[in-house]
Structure formats: C-alpha cells, structure tokens
Sequence to fold (176 residues):
Amino acid sequence: MKRIALSFILASAVVAPSAFAEGSKVEASVYGNLSSSTASYSGATAVTSTVIGLTGGYYITPKLVVNALVMVNGTETSGYDSQTLNIGGGVKFYFGNSAKNAVVPFVLGDIVIVSTSGTSSATGYGMQAGGGVSYFITEALSADVTGKLTYNSMSSSGTSFTTTGGLVNFGLTARF
Fold:
C-alpha cells in the first residue's frame, strides 16, 4: 500500500502542471511550533518545549521539493532540561497550484540526525512525517501550518531510549 501511494505521488509530480511562480527553483522557510511529546527516559515527560527551525528546498518538479533542515528545540521538564539539534533532509509534495489567496495542501517527510545536550547528552536519529496547508499571501510567499508526527531513537551512556510525539508548526515560506 505504501509503495502504491508513493508511486502515485511521484507520478503526479512528474505530470503535474506548474504549481508555483514561474521560474521558482528554491524555497526557504522559517517556523516555530507548539509540541506535545513523551519521553521514555527516567520517567520524564516533556512539560515545555520551544522550537525554531529553518528549511531550504529545491524544486525537482513544480510540486516536489527536496529539502535540508535545521531545527533547535529547548525542553524543560521536572528534573531534566535539554537543548536538541536536528539536522537532516526530506521531501515535500504540494497538491495544488499557487495564486494569491490560494490554500494549497501538502505532505512531507524528513530524516534527521539528533543531538541533545543539557542535564544529560544523547545522540541518534529521527523521522518526521506529516502534512499541512500553505496560504499564499502572494504567488511566491505563503503562511504555513504543518502537523507532524515524530520518532527519535537515541542513546546516552549506554542507555537507549525513544521519544515520540506531535508537532504543530507555524511559519512563512518564500519561493525564489
């Protein structure tokens, strides 16, 4: 089923008409989010989390973007404070055409390298998948809302643990 869905998305991207401003080859996004996550590490549960992220992407087709991302996350819990750096890449697929005042849905997926410091340190990898909508303020600038599910697998001093959760990102994307 996953292969069929992926094949459909890739085939749609190849035959789709231009989605964005003529000549746009790259996009740049800045975002922040609200998050909800649970950590299976010493019984800690995330209480407060603040995220700032930057994404840069290149259009392979008018609707399919490959991207690189950097995301910084600060979390405070009872007895455990951390700062997390995610560096990685992924893809984003738009399901519509841009125009001023258009609302265009999209799906995305990322793979990241995760490094955490603070009360203790950990390293590992993570995956994020989700979707959202872009509201086009102009043909080349959009306000975006994205929902993502996340999974991180990390280890610290011989102890392995995972974090799972959800993110709601709010941001702006410019296309050049």
Q: What stands out?
A: The chain is about 10% helix and 70% strand. The two ends are 35 Å apart (CA to CA). The first helix runs from residue 2 to 15.
